[in-house]
Amino acid sequence: MPGPEAHLGPTAAAAAAVLGAIVGLLADRLAARWPDHEDGAIRRPDWRTIVVVVLGALAFGGLAARWSAPRDVVVLGLWFGALIVLLATDLDQRLLPDRITLPLIPLTLIVLLSGWGPILGSGPGAVVDGLAAGLGLTAVLAVTDALFHGGLGLGDLKLSPSLGFMAGVAHLVAGLAVAAIGGAAVLLFLLAARRITLRSFVPFGPILIVGGILAAVAA
Questions:
Q1: How many CB atoms lie within 10 A of CB 80?
Q2: Would you give the end-to-end CA distance of the chain in angstroms?
Q3: What pTM does this model have?
Q4: Which of 215, 32, 45, 202 is nearest to 119 (CA)?
């Protein structure tokens, strides 16, 4: 299993965290405007801004602390950037735009087949692992979506292949498990604070996105 060749150091990690926070802020401001809102309004910064900025900082800071090879940093950095934008749009509009999720599928597949995947590396085993994760997660979510009568949404299904192609089975399952536990804790807090009810809609996209980021940072 491939891993980082050397740590970039705390200074680089701190600089990357600042960059990630900026990416998060830009993603939030983009999501406040795009895709077009039905009422034409532009949302002001709020709690969603804080969430996306903090996650952006943690993601990019963790990336710099964990990975050092230039190609790995570039590949994961671009992937993280797309995921942060998707998180922002999902929190803002409960939407994972096709213009991001659909291109990610062939792009991550190319990364997998070319052996450029930082997490899985190269070789037949890596390709099989990535394909199994991408197709397997999509199949599981499709079945779950059918059982819950469309409760997940097509955006989640369109995002899932690229997550698997990049992370592989073991890393993706671990990342999603941690993200799900963290998400459950947040939901319990919100329920206790009476900010949501048992009937409130809870998007699943953030769990997938955070799980993908964790799969890379903790690989």
A1: 23
A2: 9
A3: 0.91
A4: 215
